[in-house]
Each structure stands twice: as structure tokens, then as C-alpha cells.
Amino acid sequence: MAAYRVTLRDGTVEMIDGADAYQQEGQMTTFFATASGRQVVDCWSTRVASIRTSEVLAIRREEPRREGPATIGAEPVRVGLHPA
């Protein structure tokens, strides 16, 4: 699964792990994990995280990095599904 680096208006960066796609849903941008082998968001997709669209400056897709638990400070805060 991919990860997304989301830059917010206040300059903070959040990493959304475990998401394959994202789309706008009303006032929110929602990140989804799609079913195996599927490349579209549909009824089989699982919501991973949502962020208010008006707060988003940029979204970049990245390969996931295997790291420890969430950190706060200079490093991005990782949210969403984490591999066991």
C-alpha cells in the first residue's frame, strides 16, 4: 500500500499510511484502502483518514517507510493503518 504526505495550511505535514487512493467528499478529503487488485474507490473500499479540504495545501503519494510509532515535532505525524 502507498502512503500520502499531506501538507496543511499551518505548515504541518501528516503521513497517511495504508491508503491507496483519495477523493473529496463534501468538505473533507478522504483517504481509502482499496480491495486487493482494485484501483478505484468503490463500496469495497475502507476509509483510512479524512482531513478538511480547506486545510490541505498539497498531497503527495509516497512509498511507505517502515518506522516506529508516531512522532511529533520535525518529523511528520503518521496516521492511518500501520502494518503489524
Can you give a write-up of this model?
It contains no helices and 7 strands. 0% of the residues lie in helices and 48% in strands. A hairpin with a 4-residue loop joins strand 1 and strand 2. The chain starts with a strand and ends with a strand. 19% of the residues are buried.
On the 0 to 100 scale, the average pLDDT is: 83
Largest β-sheet summary: 4 strands, mixed
**Overall geometry:** globular
Rg value: 13 Å
Low-confidence parts, pLDDT < 50 over ≥5 residues?
none
Number of helices: 0
Structural class: mainly beta
% residues in beta strands: over 45%
Order of secondary-structure elements: EEEEEEE
Helix proportion? under 10%
Query: How many angstroms does the end-to-end distance come to?
Result: 13 Å
Within the largest sheet, what's the order of strands?
6-1-2-7
Q: What's the total number of strands?
A: 7
